[in-house]
Structures are given as C-alpha cells and as structure tokens.
TrEMBL record:
SUPFAM superfamilies: alpha/beta knot, L30e-like. Residues 1-49 are annotated as: Disordered. It comes from the Bacteria. InterPro entries: Alpha/beta_knot_MTases, Ribosomal_eL30-like_sf, rRNA_MeTrfase_TrmH, SpoU_MeTrfase, SpoU_subst-bd, tRNA_m1G_MTases_N. This is 23S rRNA (Guanosine(2251)-2'-O)-methyltransferase RlmB. Transmembrane segments: none annotated. Residues 10-20 have a biased composition (Basic residues). The keyword Transferase applies. Keywords: Methyltransferase, Transferase. Belongs to the class IV-like SAM-binding methyltransferase superfamily. RNA methyltransferase TrmH family. One of its GO terms (biological process) is methylation.
Length: 332
C-alpha cells in the first residue's frame, strides 16, 4: 500500500532541478525601475491632444506675425486719393513727367543713386517731406514688390479722354496708333502694354471703365515709367469708343488667332488705326469683334497655342512700326 502524498491521481511529481538558481545578476534592474509619471496627453507626440496643441501654437504665431506686419505697414500710410509709385525708373520717369510729389520715402542706399537726384530736387522744391524708412516698411507698403528702396506718394492717376489721345496723335504727326484693351484685367499686362506702346511710338492706350485693369502702383512699376509718357484714356463703353475712333478716320484692327491677315502684312498698317487686344482666355468679345474692320493674327509655332495678351500686343505694335518705317523709307 502506497502512501498518499496529496497529489491528484495520475499527476506527475515535480522534481526540483539540481544546482543553484540562476538570476539576472542585476541586468534587468533598470527595466524593473519605474519610469516616472505619465506625460500629459498634449505632450505625447502621437496623441490627438498634442496635434491640437501644435495647431494652436501655429495659429497664435501666425496671428502675431500678422499683427506685427500691420504695425510695420502702418508706418507708411497712403491717404485716400493718393498712391505710391515705386522703383527707381518709375520714380524718375514720373518726376520727369512733372507729376506732383506729396512725400518721398527712401531706404538703404537709394539716396546715393544718381537717377534719384532730380527726384530729390523736385521734392525739396515742392516742400514735400523726404522720409528715411526701413526697407521692411517699403516691403509692407508695396505688398512685397521690388521697390529698390525708393517710393513717392502722388495723387491718383488722372485718366485722359479719348479726344486727348486724338490730339496727341495729331501733334506727333504721321498716322496715329492707339491700343485698346478688351477685358484685360491683369495690371501686369496693362503695364507691359504701356511699356511696348512707349517703345514703338503708340499715342495712347484705351481701356473700358469696367472689367479692365486700372492704373495702380503695379502698372507704374511694370511700365518702367512709360505710363508717364503714354496717356491712358478710360471710356464707359468700348464699342462706342471704337466707333468714335472710326469717325476720326481710324481703322479698327482686332488681334485674334483666326485673323484674315497677319500683323506683318497688315494692309492698313500705314493708316491711322486702333489695335484691339482681348483677354487671354475669351479673346475679343462678340460686339468688339463685330466692330473691327480687320482681324489680324500673329504667326506662331504650332507648338504654342496662344500668347500672353501683353506679349501679343507688343509683337503686333512692333510689326506695325516696322511696316510704317519701311513705307516711310520707300517714300523718300
């Protein structure tokens, strides 16, 4: 009879292993040590609260930057009825054209530029304050445009009348050349057209009062001062204005890719004419197109679908100027 040892029937008896019990020797002591209190949710990078905290910080930083920008921009306050003309060429051309200066702002080494000498003399003679400012102040006042460290405050641009453009063309002699823009709303394009008009002898630019770019600081800058030499007329109805041009002996030539003539071989190039450019997307509007006497195109590579409105206008003015120069040479 076997002695009962308290284990269930059929179970095996555990036999202790011989030899000393092996330990970690202290190697796991750090793993067993406590890691301190659990970080707050907003300090744990993978927690939603942390992302919300970072978002708040970014917004607060942006708000502070905007507040600082407004404070800096407030250093140069342009009153209603006035605007800034900036950039050394633009300022020099505006001064040469006799535009009244109410204030002048100078930053950095712009005062040492020889081109600014006349501007300083005119400002002094007119009693206009010449203010030394930081470049950052001009950055904010011009919305980050390239101002070259100089700007003048002048009365808002005074538009000419269509009759003024006729008069200017008559005084210049030779056949008149006017540029009309149909729904061209980008001031960069208006400035570039003025620059081309000044370079190739156009007598003025005609724009409608609605749905068109107006003269502003960007136009002054992009025109490189040509705005001071080429007048801009603004009329309420472009179609009526073009019909008025016809009454004064002008041919109306519209620029369009599907033209019946090219600008290089324009049959009326040596006559008084109005060159009409439409917007890049829609082109000439229906009524303006119907008012045109001739639709002319610019020969371009098949790899390019269309040209920028200002680029197309510049090329067309150049082509017309070349045809007129050749006709003048042949007449001698």
């Amino acid at each position: 009879m076997s002695q009962y040892d308290g284990r269930p029937a059929g179970s095996k008896r555990r036999v202790a292993k011989k030899g000393p019990t092996k330990g970690s020797g202290g190697k796991n002591r750090r793993a067993l040590a406590g890691k301190g209190p659990t970080p707050k949710a907003e300090n744990r990078p993978y927690h939603a609260a942390y992302k919300r905290k970072r978002y708040r910080e970014v917004r607060e930083k942006a708000a502070q930057a905007q507040a600082a920008a407004k404070a800096r921009k407030a250093v140069i306050k342009v009153p209603e009825g006035h605007e800034l003309v900036f950039g050394r060429n633009s300022v020099a051309e505006a001064v040469a054209a006799g535009i009244k200066i109410t204030r002048m702002f100078v930053a950095g080494g712009a005062a040492k530029d020889d081109r600014m000498g006349q501007a300083f003399r005119v400002a002094n003679a007119a009693g206009a304050p010449i203010l030394q400012v930081e470049r950052e102040d001009l950055d904010y006042a011009t919305d980050g445009a390239v101002h070259q460290g100089v700007a003048i405050e002048v009365p808002e641009y005074e538009y000419s009348k269509l009759s003024d453009l006729f008069e200017k063309a008559n005084q210049a002699g030779g056949p008149g050349l006017l540029i009309a823009l149909d729904h061209v709303t980008d001031p960069h394009n208006l400035g570039a057209v003025l620059r081309s008009a000044g370079a190739f002898g156009a007598n003025g630019v005609l724009v409608p009062t609605r749905n068109s770019a107006s003269v502003n600081a960007t136009v002054w800058k992009v025109s490189a001062g040509a705005l001071a030499r080429v007048p801009v007329a603004r009329e309420a109805n472009l179609v009526h204005a073009l019909k008025e041009c016809k009454k004064h002996g002008y041919f109306v030539v519209g620029l369009d890719a599907g033209g019946t003539e090219t600008t290089r071989d324009l049959t009326v190039a040596d006559q008084p004419l109005v060159l009409v450019t439409g917007s890049e997307g829609a082109g000439l509007s229906r009524l303006v197109r119907q008012t045109c006497d001739v639709i002319a195109s610019i020969p371009i590579s098949a790899a390019v679908e269309s040209l920028n409105a200002a680029v197309a206008t510049g090329i067309a003015i150049y082509d017309i100027a070349q045809v007129r120069a050749q006709a003048k040479a042949e007449a001698k």
